[in-house]
Hints:
This protein is 46% helix and 0% strand. The protein is built from 3 helices and no strands.
Amino acid sequence: MHNYKLNNLTPFKSKWKNTPTKLIRIPEILESKILAYAHSLDNNQNADNSLVTVKLKEIIVKIDNKEKGYKNNSASQLIKDLKELINGDK
């Protein structure tokens, strides 16, 4: 029988907020993208939020520059872009 000292061990802290976790098999080529997506979900961040934020910032720049369809009292282009963003059309 081995006599191990357990008092020197540090407790394992999971990198995941949501537990328990489960082992899965995935293609190696997709590993980094799947892990990044899983971590963003685990951190309560939808992966699409970053794309939505980028697109909304682009729309704000167009409004600030008063581009066609984004001028005062003209919301047609803005409405069209927002509908595309909501529907996932890129």
